[in-house]
Amino acid sequence: MMVFLLWAIDLFQTIITVYMSWIYCVTDYLDPIAIKRVSLWAFTSIPLCNSLSSCITHLFIAHRIYEAAKQKRLAAGALCLSVFLTFSVGFSASLSGIIWHLSMIDVATPANVDSEDFPYHPLMLAWFATRLLVEAVLLASLSCLFVHQGTDFMDDYPSRIVKTGLLAIQCGALTTLFSFLSLVTLVSDPKTTLYIVFLLPSGRLYSNVVLTSINARARRVDPLQIANPTQALTKDIWAAAQATNVQTFDLTQMRTERVEGMESKCALDANSTAVLDEHTAKSHKHSNTQP
């Protein structure tokens, strides 16, 4: 369900990005003031998509930390509170932009939109800051978890460089970097929309965090082979696999059954040959005794 939600959000964000590019670059190609005149809901809905993706991914990483933390209630409460706070700020900034029908020029002109009734840039700044803080905390916590518990579940990767890159993706290092760049560009130059360059890929990076973590699991849990599916599926799902011994046992059992079958067949063939030889000898003896 979580993967499907991330896929739907990324698909929607891709569609609105293509739609926005078509309106600005094709439909209004000969209109130089289209960026100022055309106010697209698609432009201000980008923070909404990233807020949803970040909320799902942050809860996923928080669940991993919750499973390994000693004080589970304290860790879960603090992480969930910070995640939903970040989502609320990003949702408020995006929803306010959609309601006020902002264009790119309006967003790039803080004097026009930063009023007491409509503080767009302060909301965006608060969202970038809280998101960066939450991702930094999750990155540090998950990195400490990997250092203390090890990464035996990724021993099947022969290259240390590939393993390091995948661990960086799972910890959320790339999403933290893009959040930092978005915050820096917005603070350093608020009269441009350069932060969108770092905001657009963030949704795909959040999806990569979840998918890479799921694909890195060495153990494939089968509910039909366990006595308590709920407990086995929720406990230590990133642990090292124990499926090799089971597979070896199955292959050994198959070879044993095959050898036993061949031995039985050989014994049957030997008995048949003995019976045939005895029958042939009796026939020869009977033919010799006749006059």
UniProtKB/TrEMBL annotation:
Q: Where are the transmembrane segments?
A: 38-62, 74-103, 123-147, 167-187, 193-211
Put simply, this protein is called DUF6534 domain-containing protein
| The species this protein was found in | Hypholoma sublateritium (strain FD-334 SS-4)
Pfam family name, one = DUF6534
Domain annotation DUF6534: ranges: 138-218
Identify the keywords attached in UniProt to this record, alphabetized.
Membrane, Transmembrane, Transmembrane helix
PANTHER family, A to Z? CHROMOSOME 1, WHOLE GENOME SHOTGUN SEQUENCE (PTHR40465), DUF6534 DOMAIN-CONTAINING PROTEIN (PTHR40465:SF1)
